[in-house]
Write a structure and sequence with these properties.
By secondary structure, the chain is α/β, with parallel strands linked by helices. It has a single domain (about 1-85, about 150-230), classed as P-loop containing nucleotide triphosphate hydrolases (Rossmann fold, 3-Layer(aba) Sandwich). Helices cover about 35% and strands about 25% of the residues.
């Protein structure tokens, strides 16, 4: 289980995350919602040990182990992966090279290149194409596939539906639910309210760096107006 307690994160002297706390359990999808600039991506980066931001206080624990002070690659070694906002692919690397840069193509256990291609047949068709030759949807598939090659038990997804066509958004939702059924834990920053309501077991709403609402996906679906009021939409 991921436990985040009273996180205080800064960009320089700007206090962005102001005491946020949340939990994510195995086999659970948790959505982190909020308007732009509320600290969602900053919180994800703080959990992953990425700088900036500067984490000045608070606790991040995964399966009872303290992650604060660890470098991102040390956190990744604890089977935590990130699908970053904007995909962050390498323009000159092929699909296969993106997948094998984190794990050998000869690996036979856990997530393999062939298993990723089974989940994303389109990537198999484009396996020789470079990052800058892929569509937005294909790039998102590859970003998710690259994260899976780390054999994670927890994935942090930052805006997985951003910039995607409706059909691709629906496909990403299906993938999230498929991964959940394997027991994978997912913490997802999402701007698309309907996508969050489709996939999330629980929802946190962040406002000016503070959690102002925690609710279940079922309760949010039953009272969508409450979420809309909290999100100001």
């Amino acid at each position: 289980m991921l436990q985040v307690e009273d996180i205080q994160a800064y960009y320089g002297e700007a206090h962005i995350v102001q005491g946020a706390s949340l939990t994510v359990n195995a086999g659970e999808v948790v959505a982190l919602l909020g308007r732009n600039g509320m600290g969602k991506t900053t919180l994800i980066r703080a959990i992953m040990g990425m700088a900036p931001p500067q984490l000045r206080s608070g606790r991040v624990r995964w399966q009872g182990q303290d992650l604060v002070g660890l470098k991102p690659h040390e956190i990744a070694a604890r089977r935590i992966a990130i699908v970053p906002q904007g995909r962050r692919l390498f323009a000159s690397l092929t699909v296969v090279e993106h997948l094998t840069m984190v794990k050998s193509a000869r690996a036979t256990e856990g997530w393999t290149v062939e298993r990723v291609f089974g989940l994303f047949p389109r990537l198999a068709e484009r396996k020789g194409h470079r990052g800058n030759q892929l569509s937005g949807g294909e790039r998102q598939m590859l970003a998710i596939g690259r994260a899976l090659m780390l054999d994670p038990e927890l994935i942090l997804m930052d805006e997985p539906s951003e910039g995607l066509a409706p059909a691709m958004v629906q496909r990403v939702e299906e993938i999230v639910l498929d991964l959940k059924r394997t027991g994978l834990a997912i913490l997802m920053v999402e701007q698309n309210l309907y996508s969050a309501l489709t996939t999330a077991d629980r929802i946190y709403v962040l406002e000016t760096g503070r959690v102002v609402l925690e609710t279940t996906g079922a309760a949010a679906n039953a009272d969508e107006a409450l979420l809309r009021r909290q999100l100001g939409i």
